[in-house]
Amino acid sequence: MSLTLHFHPLSSYCHKVLVGLYEHGVSFEKKIVDLSDEASRAAFLKLSPMGKMPALRDDARDETVLESSIILEYVDRHHAGEARLVPADPDRARECRFRDRFYDLYVQGPMQAIVGDKLRPEGQRDPFGVDQSRAQLATACAVADAQMRGRTWALGDAFTMADCAAAPALFYASKVAPFGDARPHLAAYLDRLMARPSFARVLEEAKPYWSLFPG
Asked: Which of 159, 164, 168, 170 is the least buried, fewest Cβ under 10 Å from its Cβ?
């Protein structure tokens, strides 16, 4: 098999790539990375020196591809079926990339900061930083709620890379800071994402690991 995805079943960025691979129906091998295991960590650092997941190895093309958005664009170009996760039209592609970055940077980013603070030892936590992250997350969710008014997916009717990014970002954000009734368009969007077969499969595969999530 040409493609191997090095990942962890709880990682939101790994979820993002898995959604895209499942959307394309691409055949690939999955290899779970355990950074707490010395051998697993050492092997992974040879692929990804910064230790960031996921990493996609394409043996047929002798390529190692890092960073979730780059991986999805690579798969879109070299291993896609008929559908495309990044639109061919340049302006639509720019909007897709912008929304992809929006969910990664302004939803995923602060969500991870909030969760990461829970993992810090007592006495080394950052309440001020958590408050800042919660404020940024609240702003981002308000913006996203307005964007999703009248839309099915992030760009409209077509499911794209932006939705691959939104799915895990919103799923985890809803655990950290539930939307309640204040964000009805965003809540409905998350419901559609969770019902999407590709993301539903990702969530089902992650079930054995949920107890490890500190949020």
From this structure: 159
